[in-house]
Amino acid sequence: MGLNIAQKILKEHLVSGEMIQGKEISIRIDQTLTQDSTGTMAYLQFEAIGLPRVKTKKSVAYIDHNTLQAGFENADDHRYIQTVASKHGIYFSRPGNGICHQVQLERFGVPGMTLLGSDSHTPTGGGLGMLAIGAGGLDVAVAMGGGAYFLTTPKVCKVELTGKLNPWVAAKDIILEVLRVLTVKGGVGKVIEYAGEGVKSLSVPERATITNMGAELGATTSVFPSDEITKAFLKAQDRESDWVALAPDADATYDEVVTIDLNTLVPMAAQPHSPDNVAKVSDIGKIKVNQVAIGSCTNSSYLDIMKVSKILKGKTVHPDVSLVIAPGSKQVLNMIAENGALADMVAAGARILESACGPCIGMGQAPCTDAISLRTFNRNFEGRSGTVSASVYLVSPEVAAVSAITGVLTDPREFGDAPVIETPTAFMVNDNMVVAPAPEGNDVQVVRGPNIKPFPVNTEMQENVNGKALIIVGDNITTDHIMPSNAKLLPYRSNIPYLAEYCLAPCDEMFPARAKQNGGGFIIGGTNYGQGSSREHAALVPLYLGIKGVIAKSFARIHMANLINSGILPLTFVNEADYDGIDEGDDLAIEQAIDQIKAGDVLKVNNITKHKTFEVSIVLSDRQSDILLAGGLLNYTKKLSEQA
Ligand code: MIC
Ligand code: SF4
Q1: What range does the domain containing 248 cover?
Q2: Is the omega angle on the peptide bond into residue 13 within 30 degrees of 0, that is, cis?
Q3: Which of 86, 337, 467, 564 could form a disulfide with 521 if both were Cys (CB 3.0 to 4.6 A apart)?
Q4: How many domains does the chain have?
């Protein structure tokens, strides 16, 4: 039977297990990436594993998230990452070199290879035909050490693109349409594979916009074929030799097919506060705009920024709009500086930010009270911009730039001729901001600042798991709720005790205090609990607060893996109605938890307060159940090495 692209790459990298949908397999990882907000923790964990050098083909440590440096904390983390990278054989992408996913696409991604990144938007690499997966830092640390990456064999959903985009309609509109159709839970357990005639009219950066935001579908990853367009892109990046062709077999099969006719798409926006709350720009209407932010790993390529500069050329940004632009990489910034596009944007009144995540992760540019902010980013969760009352709309660079001039949300088709930008035949290649590791790491001194605190490690599972229902939250709780990130908190990503004071604060500010008072307990959640970021802080911080289990209607993939890695039970209601039977403060008990976990997929939870028992399920591989019983992946790994 023929294979699709996802199956081909998985098969070629298979280490253990059978590729039967829903069953656990493990794969070899060729490349890893980390960024600074998850990287510090990932490298502390890599150090704890105790290997001298990484065993991957290429591992890169990026600095792109925490670049405000309002105090010493970020700079200290950066110095730690630079020194630890050099010691252990990891390339170091200096602050200013760009956003990890953009730079990885330009300079390091290779079609057909696997990439594991400690960031949920790692699937950006799928635009090049990589199988690029986001994971928690500990999984990336294990992969750097040569360990396999474990995942559930995904379903493969084909998105067949027919036709061609009309002027002013962008790659962003394609992924917004996919999100509208599939929703933020629609990709869970799936790889989204793009195919069809429409693929041929999309450049690699456009494909990468689409695979990037596949993260918002909850998908394991998204992937495009590697074709002549991929080859031309790699050639223009001076790395044609990295190209291999990658296409599905003629008789490949898929678990699901979604067809999108590109001719019918129009400019769209994801309305507050969810990336799948998608509507046509023309239907939303001409709402007044306070801020426009262009950039992020979704839409900051050379092509995106050139389109924006062409739209802005000779115009002036509306007096009531603050327009900020962050080119995605030093390569992009350098090229637009040389060809005059940067000058056109500055002349129009754009505020140019450094090549980094910036406002996307709330590092500055929080909009004003009750603001309408248009962003070319990928997430518009409530409060993520740094302003709780702000309404963020996710749009294409074209919609963003035109609206920055008019001052109202504008369908760019009203704006005259669309800019046409060709992919350059030669990008400006200068990797002088990537520092190679020391050839022999032994002599490198790893420097740790005072903000770097030890991370919590769980203990073996107790026979009886007891605790109060400490908080009850609704559906689609994001990791931005569980462990908020903003300019004030990001500097503390290596300081779990400090972060713990803010855990789930957007849902209930008293939660951390209550958790501490009660010596921990349970979190009760709705569907898709833990969607969004890969930050394992959303598991490590609850662990620090004594959380023993999360009982939810369903979980997002990366967060569930992070909970298991921390030894926290991710439990799913067998009957969703039982969610309504729990009140905050109820005493819950899982008696003989170890035996119950060993015995099967369904556990009984006793609600002591309500004198009721309800069932939860926990579908685990043998390996996952051993990890939970050992008290997390680090304990499990240590145990294995002691036995060896
Ligand atoms: C995000 O977009 O939320 C982040 C910040 O890039 C995260 C990583 C993190 O929390 O540090 C992600 O997407 O994984
Ligand atoms: Fe950075 Fe935003 Fe991309 Fe996350 S989504 S990696 S914060 S640019």
Answers
A1: 5-263
A2: no
A3: 467
A4: 3
Pocket test residue of 209, 365, 378 for ligand 2, highest count of atoms within 8 A of CB: 378
Whether 360 is in the pocket of ligand 2, judged by its Cβ within 6 Å, is yes
Task: Point out the domain boundary residue: 242, 263, 284.
Answer: 263
User: What pLDDT digit, counting tens, does each position of 462-478 carry?
Assistant: 999 999 999 999 999 99
Between CA 305 and CA 302 the distance in angstroms is 5
Instruction: Please state, rounded to an integer, the average pLDDT across all residues of the chain.
Output: 97
Q: Is the predicted pLDDT of residue 638 greater than 90, yes or no?
A: no
Note whether 236 and 286 are same-domain residues: no
Q: Give the separation between CA 628 and CA 501, rounded to whole angstroms.
A: 25
Residues pairing with 612 in the sheet? 607
Residue at 589: amino acid letter: A
Indicate whether residue 208 lines ligand 2 (CB < 6 A): no
| Degrees, nearest 5: CA angle 545-358-505 | 25
Residue identified by tokens 């092509």 is: 303
Does 38 sit in the ligand 1 pocket, CB within 6 Å?
yes
Share of the chain above pLDDT 90, in %: 96
CATH code at position 311: 3.30.499.10
* H/E segment holding residue 278: strand 278-280
| H helix count then E strand count, the chain | 21, 27
- 470: which strand partners? none
* Residues 76 and 172 placed together within one structural domain of the fold: yes
The CATH number that applies at residue 601 is 3.20.19.10
pTM of the model: 0.97
